[in-house]
Amino acid sequence: MDFDLTEEQRLLQDSVARLLGDKYGFEQRKGYMKSPEGWSREIWAQYAELGLLGLPFAEDEGGFGGGHVETMLVAEQLGKAIALEPWIPTVVIGGGFLRAGASAELRAELVPQIAAGELMLAFAQTERQSRYDLNDVATTAKKDGSGWVISGRKGMVIHGDSAGKLVVTARTAGGQRDHKGIGVFLVDAKDPGVTRRGYRTVDGQRAAEVEFANARAEAVLGNPEDGLPLVDQVVDETIVALAAEAVGCMQVAHDMTIDYMKTRKQFDRPIGSFQALQHRAADMLVQLEQARSMSYFAAMGVEERDPAERRKNMASVKAQIGRSARFVGQQSIQLHGGIAMTVEYACGHYFKRLTVNDAMFGDADYWVRFLANSGGLVAAA
Amino acid sequence: MDFDLTEEQRLLQDSVARLLGDKYGFEQRKGYMKSPEGWSREIWAQYAELGLLGLPFAEDEGGFGGGHVETMLVAEQLGKAIALEPWIPTVVIGGGFLRAGASAELRAELVPQIAAGELMLAFAQTERQSRYDLNDVATTAKKDGSGWVISGRKGMVIHGDSAGKLVVTARTAGGQRDHKGIGVFLVDAKDPGVTRRGYRTVDGQRAAEVEFANARAEAVLGNPEDGLPLVDQVVDETIVALAAEAVGCMQVAHDMTIDYMKTRKQFDRPIGSFQALQHRAADMLVQLEQARSMSYFAAMGVEERDPAERRKNMASVKAQIGRSARFVGQQSIQLHGGIAMTVEYACGHYFKRLTVNDAMFGDADYWVRFLANSGGLVAAA
Amino acid sequence: MELRFNEAEIAFRQEVRDFIAKELPKETHERMLAGKSPTKQMVVDWQRKLNAKGWAVPEWPVEWGGPGWTLGQRYIFREELQQAPAPQPLAFNTNMCGPVIAEFGTEEQKKRFLPRMANLDDWWCQGFSEPGAGSDLAGLKTRAVREGDHYVVNGQKTWTTLAQHADWIFLLVRTDPNAKKQEGISFLLCDMKTPGITVRPIITIEGGHEVNEVFLDDVKVPVENLVGEENRGWDCAKFLLGNERFGQARVGASRERIRRLKRIASTESMDGGQPLMQDPDFARKVTEIEVELKALEMTVMRVIATESKRKDKKPDPATSVLKIKGTEIQQMCSELLMKAAGPYAWVDGDPEAEGSNDIDVAPDWAFGLAGVYFNWRKQSIYGGSNEIQRNIMAKAFLGL
Amino acid sequence: MELRFNEAEIAFRQEVRDFIAKELPKETHERMLAGKSPTKQMVVDWQRKLNAKGWAVPEWPVEWGGPGWTLGQRYIFREELQQAPAPQPLAFNTNMCGPVIAEFGTEEQKKRFLPRMANLDDWWCQGFSEPGAGSDLAGLKTRAVREGDHYVVNGQKTWTTLAQHADWIFLLVRTDPNAKKQEGISFLLCDMKTPGITVRPIITIEGGHEVNEVFLDDVKVPVENLVGEENRGWDCAKFLLGNERFGQARVGASRERIRRLKRIASTESMDGGQPLMQDPDFARKVTEIEVELKALEMTVMRVIATESKRKDKKPDPATSVLKIKGTEIQQMCSELLMKAAGPYAWVDGDPEAEGSNDIDVAPDWAFGLAGVYFNWRKQSIYGGSNEIQRNIMAKAFLGL
């Protein structure tokens, strides 16, 4: 048990922190958000330079060879900056599918493009009716010669508007909510069968509605008749990144709140001198520390071999992170008072990201219920 | 809408308050608890004198003609003293069954005895497996000539050891958890088929385990084939008393806490000057006021004609009272610190009664779940 | 002790309900049913209808147009508007400034302002908070210096709700900088068209424009627009804030939202293909809110009953409960509505703006619900933050 | 960054587990499995077995019998004892007074006291709290006046856990009444058989006798029993309390209780004839505790990892988290156990006392569970109340 970083990990963390410190101040971020794509190509190129875009791929495939700890370290820094770029969809989710579901040939083709910042990916999974259930897939994939064509509508495809290729879940067999019969496909976003409408999400990210009308799949990722285990695995890996992002957000929201409490005066004293507010700040710290612990646990628990156990681990991570995010987010606003309610003040943006972060792939309530139905973490016997 | 008491109600309230103020100090209460029966016959006689024992019965039957508001007023005062006498089992529960389920002849016989303090009743309902489900009845009642004989075991019969007669639920037909086929019977406690073992409960009340071995029923209360609606009605009426008792307990626990905060010094100042503790005390007051409101609502909502709506009303009362009782009880201990952990200090005894009060006939969680399953209080349409 | 509304009150409730059903424009009703605020014009039109009926200013003395209702009737009236839902009479006019003028104003001020206020001929806004004076309102710094028959006002107000619509503003200003904090403050009425007033929008985190900064730069306010005595404005403010707190329970509004929430969660298909109300945790949360709301409703009744009989102006201990619980319930409603919408709550855009859901990502009922949740965090901050309410309870009622 | 135990640690855990399985007397194990405290004799017997094995005093220097374990090993050892469950080495001897003597004592004191402490030849108790000095421990008033080669001690200690078993007591006393609060305090060791000591039981609300008042009336303590310097006893106290807080997470103990809770709630038939774990609200509450416990476990690991590398004695910010969350989790476990028992939790009687469930009302597993819940409210009060922990966090770590 050792929470120290290796020299390499520290270098990675520091380099990301330095880049974001220089280039991702709150005002700079506003500029990126206002740009047509809603994020910064320039920063993306610098991510590429730092190796962040090839992070999880094997070195001999053009990647950086990073593991879950590295994902965690980067995601936490990105969370501190509430970064807007499609790093999680491209590198963590897309990268996860490529690593676990793509042929070596496909990876040889795509990984260098991703690592160089030329190709963005997005995960077209949510449907209007599906909410957080990964098995609820109405979009269809039909055999067409040696390949597959996809039809259906996907929504809330995070960064779906800038992605060059889309990872799409589609039903190859069975009923809408069957666990079997789901395939994962790679579709070129420029395919004539693909129509996209992009928009912004409340936390400043981009997303798209994507219609597939007999869009041709470029590749199958994993087993087209039984792809849900692959989806589960990648989502579990993504939870490592989401947890770390949330910890980064919470850390900054907490720090900003403490700083504000030291400077803001009411009744002729800093509001930080009021004990009731001090105790609230302490409770925020408790929640933050518990969340940080679970972010570490995420990086460890995702390596569990048994998929059912792994999922229970990640359910517990989502549960704690979500609970902590809600408390820290809400209280950071409350302790600031009105100022944090304005769009010009950074704190509210952390709160918004934390709110969406909790709900990504299911909120804390969803995962507590899942965990309860799965027998929990502690065996009765 | 008028929360003022009538002159008569004020007299009633004041007379109970005066009696308990004189005779039910914490030290006096200890004495009563140590007596063999665990409560005071002398006080019981004074209850009779004040009319408390005939409270809910019609005046022409020897009662006081009180309604639910009167029940509430008395129960709140008894709660303030954490009184030990079998008032709720005898007058509210037993009385409720007599009013709604007994023949005029039976009432003519029993009400004067109850009102005079000569007869105590107890409700033999809980069974080892039944927990809070009123329909879970394994005890049987079998026809025997023109009457019924009861066999089975009842537990946690509050004040079952001093009761002269027992109101017993027993199954006349159907399976153990069927809603139909439950009868309510009056059994003399001295019947040779009745064996009782008395003990004390954690909140200082008495209770008994009662075995029925072909015990003869003196009377049937209500419909022996379908007595559950009667049981539901009486339990709902009892919730009026339990809610008020809890409010009385909370009021005293809160007052004691505030007083203690004003006098106890740590770090050279009264602990009541610490803002974090002040806010906790304020939160206790919020909970107390919300509970008091629901105690009033209980007296109103129990008169709803539709039994399903009435039960939803009472479910909401139990839910709020239980939540408030938990918070006020726990925090009254916490704000006192160690002193309230000792058996010599009154506050802990209020906490204990509040804990049991919450769980009587189902705790807040039980009733929230019931209410949720029943569609809640607000119609969607 | 009579714990039910009497027959007259029940009849009154029906009368209000019938009036709303008959007179409330369909467009206004539908917009509000969908969870959006009414437009300025909708508010104005409706208030004029209420005024024609004699119902626009329930809190005012009869001689100035008040209907002479009991507190119970006032409560019923508000509750029915909230749960219809229908717009309420504009609070700045009818609950805040109007009662202050009626209580502290000169006869001339009453004649000049009250009828136009009641008919919403003038839209008023509130100039209280300042960047440095939030919870500590009495710490305000905006200065008013008397020069002849004018006060010259300089300073900055903030969180000024709907100042963009306003014709007039009522201001707390410091007229004696040497007096103790709460002394030396005065209450002024100021035409928003006066030179030197600049209104700058504050965009809140969900993207909406509801509040503003108001800059006052050598703004000349005629001395006749002073309400009450110079340096005694804090009395007006306390009187006004007392009225405000009373209305913060908003039981009817929460009931309307719970109804909407349950409608959505009972019909929309959710996780596992079931309606969300089948999810035991969600159903539990909704139920807990319903219970708290029922308790709050009874607490409001108690406050009304107590206040009706009280001679002094001292508020009931329960009024702070109304603010704390009322806002907690409303915030929880907004959170549960957001949760019901799932990912579709995340589409960015001011739900109040026209055409904002044109992208057609989310169903209309879900659009903007995260924004509403964000926006409603303000409820535990403004109107005397919930922490300030706890201070009040601890000090004023518990004597700590 | 290596987020797992290494192979040596895993092997060590197995070694501890095997030792417990082989050596822990069946009677002791069964009593603890049923949720009861081990008797004095059980604690003594077990500690002597541990001592024979060299495991009785994990926190002590090797030269005084410590096994030389890493912090990780110490954690594993405690966790295995807690979750077995098995008695822990008596905290007063091994975690509190022993380390203080080892750190601050004279060579003679070490020789005289430590071996007997390790073997539990003497049972120690803690004389810190006083009626007027709870959260504000430094406000203690018990006086020690030096007279020749003795201190004469007068005063009263309270909340003295298991003083009824004790042979010795370690005391904080005021030796300089004129010094500032935290100065002028000394740390004394005192034989409980010394004339002038009276132990009076404090019965706690559930009826148990675990704590006591200790009256000190002209009690003569030889000067050689002063630990450290006169008037520098606060250093000893701080050192000791730092050690105490570290152990308050009690992850293994909570895990054992959750296991018991789930066993009960999965097998006992409850409302609706189903096991309680089928009740969605109950299952949710249990699950939430499991999640918090997992997070706490990781937080403990982090603290251990940080502390292992730190040179200074300053505690990690996370140590207050351990106290707050650790006690919250334990209290919630006790509440859920009580809830699981339903009405059968209400039978009065000290569950620790022999024959207390003879009435046979409740099943054995349920008897006394309300009492345990009541008793465990103390956890957020003692050892530095959770409010004091928040003060520490706000001041020491957040700089507020």
From TrEMBL, chains A, B:
Originating organism: Dankookia rubra
- Domain Acyl-CoA oxidase/dehydrogenase middle stretches: 122-212
The Acyl-CoA dehydrogenase/oxidase C-terminal domain, residue ranges: 226-368
Q: Which UniProt keywords apply?
A: FAD, Flavoprotein, Oxidoreductase
Membership in a protein family: Belongs to the acyl-CoA dehydrogenase family.
Q: Acyl-CoA dehydrogenase/oxidase N-terminal domain: which residues?
A: 6-118
Q: What is the lineage of its organism?
A: Bacteria, Pseudomonadati, Pseudomonadota, Alphaproteobacteria, Acetobacterales
Recorded hits in Pfam families, A to Z, give:
Acyl-CoA_dh_1 (PF00441), Acyl-CoA_dh_M (PF02770), Acyl-CoA_dh_N (PF02771)
According to UniProt, the name of this protein is Pimeloyl-CoA dehydrogenase small subunit
Q: InterPro entries, per this entry? A: Acyl-CoA_Oxase/DH_mid-dom, Acyl-CoA_Oxase/DH_mid-dom_sf, AcylCo_DH-like_C, AcylCo_DH/oxidase_C, AcylCoA_DH/ox_N, AcylCoA_DH/ox_N_sf, AcylCoA_DH/oxidase_NM_dom_sf
UniProtKB/TrEMBL annotation, chains C, D:
Family annotation (Pfam families): Acyl-CoA_dh_1, Acyl-CoA_dh_M, Acyl-CoA_dh_N
Q: Which cofactor does it need?
A: FAD
**Which sequence ranges are marked TM in the entry?**
none
Q: Name one GO cellular component term.
A: plasma membrane
| Name of the protein in its database record | Pimeloyl-CoA dehydrogenase large subunit
List, alphabetically, the Gene3D superfamilies matched.
Acyl-CoA dehydrogenase/oxidase, N-terminal domain, Butyryl-CoA Dehydrogenase, subunit A, domain 2, Butyryl-CoA Dehydrogenase, subunit A, domain 3
Its keywords, alphabetically, are: FAD, Flavoprotein, Oxidoreductase
Output one GO MF annotation.
Answer: flavin adenine dinucleotide binding
Family indicated by similarity: Belongs to the acyl-CoA dehydrogenase family.
Keyword Flavoprotein set for record: yes
| Segments forming domain Acyl-CoA dehydrogenase/oxidase N-terminal | 7-119
Q: Where is the Acyl-CoA dehydrogenase/oxidase C-terminal domain?
A: 231-397
Q: Which residues form the Acyl-CoA oxidase/dehydrogenase middle domain?
A: 125-219
